[in-house]
Design goal:
alpha/beta; 7-stranded mixed beta sheet; 9 strands; 23% strand; globular
Length: 206
């Protein structure tokens, strides 16, 4: 078990509107040359997060919850409600997802935000950012100088994160506080699956 008490918040509630294939992008089958073992985009991302030994909380939608529960224990799954207490459609967006995940792991020493569509992101890169937020309010992985994921936040930013709303995510928090790029030898910090073409490129990666 890693000594860090940071938690990983995996964001798996998006609709994936740019993916025009059959089904949601997170449930797409993925067979990589390195392993030849079939998996899904979501399962590989979650597998790498779990490998870190850090606590992992997955924020998801009602529709995707069954897919998440195939990999994660119920206690680690946060399902965003479809309606509020008045029966109106609930507000959705990356900001709401981050707030829900951070709130669910509120006793952590910090939080790493990991989009669920990043199956090439390595455990070591997550751990590097987790170590960095012991020294910086905000840290993020970068590869050859290009900013990527995860983005990590120290515990002092809890109130900022749980107040997030809408689709902006945590960009305003990153802009307000000093941040540190952590160089890693991992091109996966830049690779996500938004389109069918993105998925096809992944299948050819080593």
């Amino acid at each position: 078990m890693n000594k860090s008490k940071a938690a990983i918040v995996v964001l798996a509630a998006g609709r994936g509107m740019r993916f025009h294939g059959d089904g949601h992008k997170l449930e797409q089958r993925l067979t990589l040359h390195a392993t030849n073992a079939p998996t899904t985009v979501l399962a590989r991302t979650l597998g790498h997060a779990v490998e870190t030994g850090l606590r992992v909380v997955v924020v998801t939608s009602l529709a995707l919850a069954p897919l998440v529960r195939q990999v994660m224990a119920e206690r680690d799954v946060v399902v965003l409600p479809e309606q509020d207490s008045q029966g109106r459609p609930s507000a959705v967006g990356m900001g709401h997802s981050i707030a829900a995940g951070v709130s669910a792991a509120g006793d952590a020493d910090g939080w790493l935000i990991v989009p669920a569509d990043m199956p090439m992101l390595r455990p070591a890169s997550m751990l590097a950012v987790a170590s960095a937020i012991a020294h910086y309010p905000v840290a993020y992985a970068q590869y050859r100088g290009r900013r990527g994921h995860p983005v990590g936040f120290s515990a002092e930013l809890y109130s900022e994160l749980v107040d997030l709303q809408g689709d902006e995510g945590a960009r305003r928090v990153v802009a307000r506080f000093p941040s540190q790029g952590i160089e890693v030898d991992d091109p996966g910090v830049l690779v996500d699956v938004d389109t069918v073409e993105d998925l096809a490129r992944l299948q050819t990666m080593p």
